[in-house]
Amino acid sequence: MKTALITGATSGIGKATAQLLGRQGYRLIICGRRIDVLEELQAGLSPHTEVFSLTFDQRYYAEVEKAITSLPENWREIDILINNAGNAHGLDSLIEGNVEDWDAMMDGNVKGLLYVSKMILPGMKSRNSGHVINISSVAARQTYANGVVYCASKRAVDVISEGMRLELTEFGIKVTNIQPGAVETDFSKVRFKGDETRADTVYQGYEALKAEDIADAISYCINAPKHVTVSDMTIYPSAQSEPRTIHRK
């Protein structure tokens, strides 16, 4: 039975992925910043799913290191790492941007992914086996005005994924970079700092992707035959033609 560690497991894509992989028989290490939400997620998973929860904020390496080194011996062989945790804050020009928002995005989307990977990859390398899924964004493909820092953080995820593949393929480790388009989760609510009215307009007039759609894609990638690696996957809702263009009714 394989073990998958999922960051940002408490909502959106991470939660949907935990639910799907739990039904498929994976052992799960679910990670998030709030123990109460992790406990709620765990309670809602299949009763047959083996689950271990880790609470940490991946923006801080000391927290990541402490949490992952605290894993019991029988949970330390991690076969699949799903680097899902990330965030978007604000939709402002560089001139008007909030430095705290920039730090949150770069620390969470880039440094956090690196911190978690640094802790997990040595074990995979020593076993000559493993699979890393990095959740990027179509924002990495085309920079848009007022989202420069977010786009830069996701472009960094693409570059890190490519670098991982170059360094790890010879050790039997697969690396998959997934770029979702518009997915209806709490993403926009976080970006607009809780303004639900503004967040809702992002998904009006068309059918956005659902978190479950991305979970299905992740499942496909990790369940592919051993000789198959999906290196990059871009997923749009059918109404979206490129990162900046959505055709609304």
TrEMBL record:
Keywords: Oxidoreductase. The keyword Ion transport does not apply. Gene3D superfamilies: NAD(P)-binding Rossmann-like Domain. The keyword Oxidoreductase applies. Signal peptide: none annotated. GO terms for molecular function: oxidoreductase activity, acting on the CH-OH group of donors, NAD or NADP as acceptor. Belongs to the short-chain dehydrogenases/reductases (SDR) family. This is SDR family NAD(P)-dependent oxidoreductase.
